[in-house]
Design a protein that fits this description.
Length: 271
């Protein structure tokens, strides 16, 4: 068996699994998102993950990201404290109740916890509790579709995020369910049908993804057959999005188009 991770990466992967498991034992619902989640979601495609070299460095991860419900904020803070992580006080001042950053100097990485939704260029909603929330759909990570939305919402998308999308589309089919290893195209289409601004960045990012995909084939980072699968799944998702009826709010916002700013400015933080 080939070991792809450095010692630091492996520690982060092991810790990430342990945090979710310990949280579950305490009745706390947390799930992984971000790069660690994508690596675990796409574990059968570890060779592609290695070849894409998302950070162009020996280590592939910078931190661990978690999604949780705001109702369990105090329990999450106590859990991470017990596991050796202390909350960054500045993050409390900057983000209020929406996000907390925890640090462990000895381990050398931080944990970023997002409550109820991810808020960067656009919002990705997790829900406010187990009833109707999305955190219980998969046992370890957010559903594949939410990991895709996490990347598509980025206004100034960069190459590591595009590589993460390549991996997600290689490892997950596109369908209309939240089953494990299925990107729920119907869910994405529904979200975007009410939000022209998110829809527009998604459209731009999917176009960029296909352009970079061609480059990755030329660079031999991905085999032509696998790239064809990714391209087919992106096109399938695009059809879901195009065929979904748009809301009145979407149609109203579309009239101003890109002449009006369509994204939220956010601080840059590794994802």
């Amino acid at each position: 068996m080939i070991t792809l991770e450095t010692a630091k990466d492996q520690i982060m992967l092991d810790d990430a699994r342990r945090i979710v498991e310990e949280a579950s034992q305490r009745g706390i619902c947390v799930r992984l998102l971000g790069a660690v989640a994508i690596r675990l979601n796409s574990s059968k495609y570890a060779d592609l993950f290695l070849r894409l070299d998302r950070l162009k460095s020996e280590n592939k991860f910078t931190d661990v990201d978690l999604a949780a419900y705001g109702k369990q904020r105090l329990q999450v803070r106590r859990l991470l404290h017990d596991l050796g992580f202390e909350v960054n006080r500045q993050s409390l001042l900057m983000h209020g109740n929406s996000r907390m950053i925890f640090e462990n100097a000895q381990k050398g990485y931080s944990i970023d916890v997002f409550f109820d939704k991810l808020q960067f260029s656009h919002d990705v909603e997790f829900g406010r509790g187990p009833d109707g929330g999305r955190l219980g759909l998969n046992p370890l990570t957010l559903p594949s579709v939410d990991l895709v939305l996490e990347k598509l919402q980025i206004h100034e998308i960069n190459e590591k995020d595009l590589k993460d999308l390549v991996l997600l589309f290689a490892a997950n089919t596109v369908g209309n369910s939240d089953d494990e290893n299925v990107i729920n195209g119907k869910h994405i289409a529904s979200v975007l049908s009410n939000d022209w601004e998110f829809w527009y960045d998604t459209k731009l990012n999917l176009e960029k993804l296909l352009k970079f995909l061609n480059n990755y084939v030329d660079q031999k980072l991905i085999e032509a057959e696998a790239a064809a699968t990714v391209r087919s799944r992106v096109e399938q998702l695009t059809r879901f999005i195009d065929e979904e009826p748009k809301s009145k709010d979407w149609q109203k916002r579309s009239k101003a188009g890109s002449e009006k700013k369509w994204w939220r400015d956010v601080e840059e933080r590794s994802r």
